[in-house]
Amino acid sequence: MHSSIALLSCALLCACAAAPSSKFTKFTDATGIDFVHIPAGAFRMGSDEDAQTLAQAFPAYDPARFTQLADEGPVHAVRITRAFWLGRHEVTVAQFRRFVEASGHVPESEADGTGGYGFNPTYDPGTTVRGDAFEGRSPRYSWRNPGFAQGDDHPVVNVTWNDAVAMARWLSAKEGVTYRLPTEAEWEYAARAGTRTRFSTGDDPRTLLKGANVFDQNAAPHWPRWRAFALDGHDGQAFTAPVGRFAPNAFGLYDMHGNVWEWCADWHADDYYARSPVDDPPGPEDGSVRVRRGGSWHTWAFYARSSFRNWNSPETRYTLVGFRLLRELAPHESAMSNR
Length: 339
Ligand SMILES: [Ca+2]
Ligand SMILES: [Ca+2]
Description:
By secondary structure, the chain is of the alpha+beta class.
């Protein structure tokens, strides 16, 4: 009797150690959001590539840009001690609309009356003071309308950090499990999916062509002044792409690079990596700007690197910024999970 129990336990443990049981590798919640099981694990976070190396790899860029990346270092060990579910895709227009309609939440782009940003083919960045690539901020634009066509399966944009957190809270109450934005460490761990290269697809930006929607030869004709920075190739997408259109990373996650920037839970601090804890770094205790990661459909490849950190105030809404949700494991799932 004892030996058969021991054998059974071993079989379960061995199965879990090899790979999470299929029951727990993917999951679709009641609102239709697909999640991928991300196991606990360790990785090296950040980048310590020197300016000279980067200048050689990205010759079109002003070398001064490569001296402004101090917040990516030092490279440091991070342990993600708890497995979690991460959205297979960025939150889509349809999913966000479902949230808005069911919850009554009024997204900030509509609530404060100032709108968002949008693409207007007659707008010329060269005639503006800031040289911004998009028109706005204007009530003409919001999460409903970024000025270019978006299907229901495109990632929602013009959503603020506060909007993203509101959706996570609504889902938490609805599902009885915690939904939230990933921490910056969870995001980079998931984006790298075991890689140490600049992108999960490799070091060469051209490897992104099959794995990410970034600023490429399809997008460049709309912004000719930045043509020199467009990826050398066509990814087929001038604006946002339907989520999941490109190849996934080794965790089965789509669009971690490109399509839309993704809000993370953390405040941003330049010096955080030098003082962050090894286990589950939560980000600085306070700050004024929130982290966003991964680059977008309008982002030059260099800024879509796994280690690149960008940020904005929590009420920022923009044509390039969306989010992806994390769902924490329920207690019974944690017990079964490959820790
Ligand atoms: Ca593109
Ligand atoms: Ca993305």
